Amino acid sequence: MGEEIFDVVNGRDQVIGQGARGEVHRLGLKHRAVHVLVFNARGELFLQKRSMKKDNHPGVWDSSASGHVDHGETYDACAVRELREELGLALNQAPRRLFKIEACAATGQEFVWVYRCRAEGPFALHPEEIEHGDWFTPARITEWLRERPEEFAGAVPVIWKRLGVSPA
Question: What residues contact residue 168 under an 8 Å CB cut-off, 6+ apart?
Answer without folding.
Answer: 146, 161
